[in-house]
Amino acid sequence: MKPSHLEPAQLPPAGIEGLRPEWSRLVTVPTTDSVGRTWHILDNQVEHPRITLLCVHGNPSWSYLWRTLLEYAPSDVRVIAVDQLDMGFSERTGRVRRLQTRVDDLSELTAELGIDGPVVTVAHDWGGPISLGWAIRHLDQLTGVILLNTAVSQPEGSAVPTLIRIARSPLVLAPLTVLTGGFITGALAMSKPQPAAGIRKGFHAPYQSAKRREAIGEFVKDIPLKPSHPSADALDVVAKGLDVLADVPALLLWGPRDKVFSDLYLHDLEARLPHADVHRFGGASHFVSEDADVVTPIFDWLDSNRASRTDGLVDGAVVEVSAEPAAERPAVVEMGGGKTVTFGDLRDRVDQTAVGLLKAGVEPGDRVALMIPPGVDLSVALYGCWRMGAVAVLVDAGLGPKGMSGALAAANPDHFIGVTKALVASRILGWPGRRFSVRPLGIFKRLLRVVTSLDELAEAEGVSPSLPASSDQAFLVFTSGSTGPSKGVKYTFGQAHAGRTLIIEKYKITSSDCLVAAFAPFAVYGPSMGVTSIVPDMDVTAPGTLTAVALGDAVVAGSATLVFASPAALGNVIKTSGALTEAHKGAFSNVRVLLSAGAPIRPSMLRSASDLFPNASAHTPYGMTECLPVAEISLTDIEGVSGGDGACVGEPLDGIDVQIDALDHFGIASGQLSHAPGVLGEVVVRANHARSGYERLWHTTHLASQPKGSHRTGDVGHLDAQGRLWIGGRMGDVITTAHGVVLPVRIEQAIEGLPGSDMVAVVGVGPVGTQQVVAVIQTPTVRRPALADLDHHSNARSVAGVDLAAVLLVPELPVDRRHNSKMDRPRVAAWATAALSGGRIPKL
Known about the structure:
Layout (H helix, E strand, L loop, with lengths): L23 E6 L7 E7 L7 E6 L10 H6 L4 E6 L16 H15 L5 E6 L2 H11 L4 E7 L13 H7 L1 H10 L2 H8 L7 H8 L9 H8 L10 H10 L8 E5 L8 H10 L4 E4 L7 H4 L3 H9 L26 E5 L5 E3 H17 L7 E5 L4 H12 L3 E4 L5 H12 L3 E4 L1 H10 L4 E4 L6 H4 L2 E4 H4 L15 E6 L9 E5 H14 L7 E5 L1 H10 L2 E4 L12 H11 L3 E4 L1 H9 L6 H7 L4 E4 L6 H9 L5 E8 L2 E8 H6 L6 E6 L4 E7 L5 E6 L6 E6 L6 E2 L3 H7 L6 E9 L5 E6 L4 E3 L2 E3 L1 H9 L6 E7 L6 E7 L7 E2 L2 H11 L3 E7 L14 H11 L9
Helix pairs in contact: 2-3, 3-9, 5-8, 13-14, 21-23, 22-24, 27-28
């Protein structure tokens, strides 16, 4: 069906939300179709720009899609957003314009505009192939490519998106795309929440009649679903031609909730543009530029040099099973499963597994998701992956099904090794990756679509592969999600080696030590440190399940000298310590280091735990998934310091630089970094073992790496005169009162010392700059949330050191799933605001 009606180009009507009239231009290209065609474009008309953004919309949109780029463009950046012919407010030509024609059209337009400086293409949807076709033709002036939710091919073996198949059916095509505005409405409806009414009206503005919507239907028909389609060859030329962009910087901005261009198409583009920077906006859909702020990442990306961070990388050895301990010495002991492996056997099994993985089709650089509880099997799988250069994707079951699904969608592993329970979840939830089981599965192998097992891989014969380089990626581990959406954190082998070495040197760990690892990260590092690692009988997804007897049994079994555990684990050990036997207590006296890691621990809890180990030096390190450890402090020092605002976490470890980015009155970092004592602000760290970046979160990595090579922790604190670091909370937890900034941690610790105060969250309620301080106290004796009585309020106020506007009592405060310790203060603040707004106090 050819368009039956010709209409000239026109300027948009006044009053379209977010659209400035001065941006609109009509540009006639005399050569197009040999008769001349007129385009409507948006152009901020910057003279002598340092760079021009050439923005191409897809279907069913128009140049309006790029209005925010024009609104916020720097003064030296020109933004040209086109309405493709027959779309938006450009001329209705009366001709069917296929992909190749549209690439020709765009090339003729830019020639007419006389764009002769550096150009970065920006495109969305079907505008992607068109802009890439233009880019391949204009390599002489192309300096970058930016793509948003688009595709250049249908990945092999995948089905065409259901929405496209429905839209292409003869009974639906015309009614959906031409006779009504349903195609536009449906595309906008993918966004949750939908754009405001004025924005939706703006997208519909050029398409007020069926005659003006005919090209929307033609665009849908021009998607080549078969090799015989008229545009199939042109699209194939674009897809195969992306090789010439290998040296051109590229940025992929993606909305993973898109029901048309899902992550499947993102991964296809990543394979074709392996050098591209990627940022996935977790909740965004098809119109990602409407669902998320893409403007800031785009301009930050243009300003960055996009070079990989090399500051702080080390040329250390690859992390592998230590060769120091005697072969017959136990390497890993599982108290719950009853399995033990010696260092000699572990080294052999790791080498055999590496060979087996290679023979099973796993290649160096492939991603392998591991869902195996800490113990022998995880050590074999993890070190086997590292031995042959695969990237281990470590997803904590403590994230829960939804969190694990999100993490695996972001990581997109090539392979998946798991216990049976994890394989069942993988099959049901559709997690990516070829599946490998830990044990042979018999008849369930085919049902779960399992390739083979670790046991079978270990029987493979062959030459051990070469060790990977220290600059190769070693693993991807996900944050707990307690301080925001869970993020994938990338580490190289060099960074992993540097972190391991730092721990060994700090705690003087030798092969004569034995470690009880009740904290999962140390359980997997144990074999590389050359110490026997004992995994106690506990549910690693719930640290609070560790009992004193289970810990005692583990210490007895290995005559342990080191105990590493999380605060939640130690809390339950203290509660159940009455069941300890004399044998347990005797073994505890041989422990020389007690380490609490994973979350902040109250000094009183660390003291109670330390009392169980009479000859141990108790320590707690400060760090985060992105850099662990940063600093550390002993219990003796904790009990001897005072005067700081927050919790003292000790001096930075050797080779680690800590600076403070000072806060202004509204709790915002000023960009002024300082080592000076008493300066309150965001903690910024530089270390050899800090992460290399976040997975498919280019902009998050960029913002968290300023100054270049640093890691902005998101924690707020200060250094004291002795160089010790004090942490007062998270940046999002800062309370901004009329009298200045207030940090929660110091106040919480003071109130927790009162009788009946089990755990405390201090939050701000009200507008920024005039917030009121509210204390929410977890009190086991209350059954439902309530306002504290006058005495309780007075006692809390007397120790807080600030004016408390209210004190609320709750039976339980929200903490993270992984560590059961990290307070969700933003959630508490929102609840406190609702609770104090009048009426019945809601549940927390």
